[in-house]
Design goal:
Layout (H helix, E strand, L loop, with lengths): L5 E5 L3 H11 L4 E5 L2 H10 L4 E5 L7 H11 L4 E6 L4 H11 L3 E4 L4 H17 L20 E5 L3 H11 L4 E5 L2 H10 L4 E4 L2 E2 L2 E2 L1 H10 L4 E6 L4 H11 L3 E4 L4 H20 L5 H4 L9 H14 L1 H10 L1
Parallel strand pairs: 1-2, 1-3, 3-4, 4-5, 6-7, 6-8, 8-11, 11-12
Antiparallel strand pairs: 9-10
Helix pairs in contact: 2-3, 3-4, 4-9, 8-12
Amino acid sequence: MTEKLNILFVDDEKQILIPLKAMFKKQYGVFTAVSGPLALEIINKNLIQIIVSDQRMPEMQGIQLLKLVKEKSPNTVRILLTGYADLSAVVESVNTGEIFRFIEKPWNNERLKKTIEAAAQISLKQTGSVNIENLQSSSEQPTQFGLLVVDDDLDICAKVHHFMGHQHNVFCASCLTEALSIMEEQDIAILITDTMVKGEEMSSLIHVLKETYPLTVVVVLTTQADAHLVVRLVNEGQIFRYLPKPVESHLLEFSINAALKRYAQFRHEPSQLVSQQYIEKPPEDTPESKGKVAMLKGKLNFLQQRLKKIWH
């Protein structure tokens, strides 16, 4: 009999933990904790494959807990339950805790079950953590990568050129059409994009890119202050960083360097890519949005062949 995966639910309200345990105890070994410190004690004593934490807790907030879990147990898949639109908390959870998925409260049971199932598949396919600090010195790793900046603000591209142009190939696009042309010609490791460029949303590009070429690491820079947008970009596009504009130069440089390390991690150990492939399908509310997604899939389909060539 296959050993059950362990899942830890964390919420300061016991009445929430009781039905969660009842819902999942048949398929998983279920642990519960009513605070962040108690959750960390469980993590220290047990192998926990999945953690689902509430955000708003008095002793330690969910984002703080998941950041510590990432450090202590990097392969534990991290899910955040959030019941309020706190932009700063959501952004911090992306940038420090690297959340797999957000679930908004009150949650839909079927959606929660599907999210847990996806997290379980990720845990089963991951082979172990990779020390990304050591990857840059590996002789097998490329030392020059392609960075694509998609933004109608020329200053952003100039900054990225200043930081990275001496070591990497930096390409700039001021619209979606230009971005697609560059991606067809160049192997792009890091996509740095606004959420809105020349009046066109980039969320569909991010989603389709992750579907077809999950190796690319996405950094978002935007003036849009919308917590629900951040949640969508994580759930539907597994973005790596979300930086509100105006962004300080040192933070932009730090975030791009972190993204390069993550890209090197993915190339070194393909099993780590599995978390990028379990993404939610975005709502296609109009014929226009359906047509755009279909167009992008057609344009980016060649990337699947490019991905195969990297490891074959």
